[in-house]
Amino acid sequence: MSAYFNYDDQKGYNHRRKAAKKVVSQAVYDNRKLFKEDKYSKTRQLGLQSTFVKNQIIPTKITDQQLEATVYTTQRLNFEDEDGKDTVKVFQITYDGETNKLVKIEQQGIYNIAVDSTETVD
Q1: CATH number for the domain including 34?
Q2: What is the tally of structural domains in the chain?
């Protein structure tokens, strides 16, 4: 997941898909919803940067050679060289032990904890 979440310029953002190629199936690699194109170069224009912080993986199903899990990925987002804010994104994934690749990655939303401790996924 670090290949997907680490970028500090437009070139790095655009390279995320290629950087993940070795660990994802062809179907995931071809998923344009997951690997959105930055048509207007907003990453460059706004000086957006992202750093992978950690994953929390909660297995939900294990069968033969496949593991399904909910993954909470923390990334730090910031504008160029400024202090960032951590964001937690929620994914449903399927890992195939036979191919050693992620064969399904679906973003479920962004996990938020409010001041009153209520939890939501946007």
Answers
A1: 3.10.450
A2: 1
The residue-averaged pLDDT of 78-99 equals 92
- Burial-class residue 41 by CB neighbours within 10 Å (0-12, 13-18, 19+): exposed
pLDDT for position 81: 77
CB 121 within 8 A of CB 106: no
pTM reported for the whole predicted model: 0.84
Check: CB of residue 93 under 8 Å from CB of residue 104.
Answer: yes
CA dihedral 91, 101, 30, 61 (to 10 degrees): -40
- The two three-digit tokens of residue 45, written as one number: 């224009």
Confidence at residue 116, expressed as pLDDT on a 0 to 100 scale: 63
